[in-house]
């Protein structure tokens, strides 16, 4: 996951755009209830590690997302996969840190978008920093050169309506070989790293409205409504 936009306000549905950037050959499943141990959670499933990049708890309206960060790119042997973090955070809320030990994990940014607040945890491989964000529209990325995206695109998302305005912003950005692009495609030594998935999440307690596409700059977008 490389780009997340969140709009939240108390008393309103939490709205999220999540764009996942990944090696194109890595297989994954579209959003569904893939985890019997987490029956209330809906998200796309990574077939390699079994976790997810984005999960929503239908009962509480909480959405959790994980983005890779550059400080520590490789986990130590035996450390948990970052793909478990959205599952634990969506299930446990802010208490997710009691459900997993991040020691040895690769660095990450975890986003917890709930009806009553937006919180991020930034882990550089050694230290965890928790930040609460006031009401409004926010954008986070995987860090480094990608942080330039917020300078370009955050004002546009803040001014645009959800979901149609946000979807038009993605449609207007074809894939580019530029870490500051909203939709990316980079090829090196025969390996292609690109935006492979986009989803729009509208979540409130007891109801989830989800639209998603494997080619979000073109579509089509499929819809899933639960609750």
Quick recap:
The protein is mostly beta strands and 227 residues long. Helix content is 12%, strand content 41%.
Plain-language structure description:
InterPro entries: TANGO2 (IPR008551). It is built from 3 helices and 14 strands. It is mainly β and 227 residues long. The protein has a single domain (3-226), classed as Penicillin V Acylase, Chain A, CATH 3.60.60. The strands form 2 sheets. Strands 1, 2, 10, 11, 12, 13 and 14 form a 7-stranded antiparallel beta sheet that branches. A 7-stranded antiparallel beta sheet has the order 3-4-5-6-7-8-9, with helices on one face. The radius of gyration is 16 Å and the shape is globular.
Instruction: Kindly report how far apart the N and C termini lie.
Output: 26 Å
| Poorly predicted regions | none
Strand content: 35-45%
Give the radius of gyration: 16 Å
Could you tell me the CATH topology label: Penicillin V Acylase, Chain A
Please, what is the CATH homologous superfamily?
Penicillin V Acylase, Chain A
Shape verdict = globular
What series of H and E elements makes up the topology? EEEEEEHEEEEHHEEEE
Q: Which CATH top level class fits?
A: Alpha Beta
Tell how many strands the DSSP assignment holds: 14
Number of helices: 3
Going by helix content, strand content and strand pairing, the class is mainly beta
Helix content: 10-25%
| Sheet of most strands | 7 strands, antiparallel
Named at the architecture level, the CATH assignment is 4-Layer Sandwich
List keywords for this structure.
single chain, 227 residues, Penicillin V Acylase, Chain A, seven-stranded antiparallel β-sheet, 3 helices, 14 strands, TANGO2, Transport and Golgi organisation 2
